[in-house]
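Translate sequence into structure tokens.
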Amino acid sequence: MFDSIINLLIKGFEGLHNLVFKVIPNVNLSYGLTIILAIIIIKLITLPLNIKQVKTTKILQKIQPEMKKIQAKYKSDPQKQQQQILQLYKDYKINPLSGCLPSLIQLPILLIFFQLFLRLPGIHENTISFLWIPNLAAKDPYFILPILAVLTGYLQGKLSIPVSEDNEAQAQQNRVMNIVLSVMLGVFTISVSSAVGIYYVFSNIISIIVSLVINKVVLKEDKA
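Result follows.
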């Protein structure tokens, strides 16, 4: 089943590359641009989830005072406390897990692309260069991609992970988690092909832009 999905994605990627190559008949440039175009397509598909994530995060921040009151009132009755918090979520029509969904699906997509670029014939049968990278099938010899992976991963996480202004311990935990995850994925980028690194870094950059735009739109909706 998994192999069938990868084979289907390989055909889709090669078809997309053929279209790009007709417009830009330079195999080095066209392959890199196809990777970026594939990222944009994925981001458009997952855009509704990202919008839902931002809206859920904003509402969770808004209802923090009410949650604190419930926690204080039913401190000695955890079951009642949980019921009241669930009712609060229901009243505001939110599912707190939906705020984490885009972040949760990012890693499986990254692993799928890892397999895609591992098996993609065009990259392995030819030496494809892009930007400063001499070979997309090999690791980045200058370690620029891993550094960018850490920086963009951290910034993307900072924009997407909820910030609790009233709970410094939770805020600190979120910051540490974001740093650890960013460094882990940066280390992962060191050991994989440059094609995967390009996918991850540009995916983060596009996610940052999308998050900034969505945050601005949601903020305008809240003020309206």
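Note: The longest helix spans residues 194-223.
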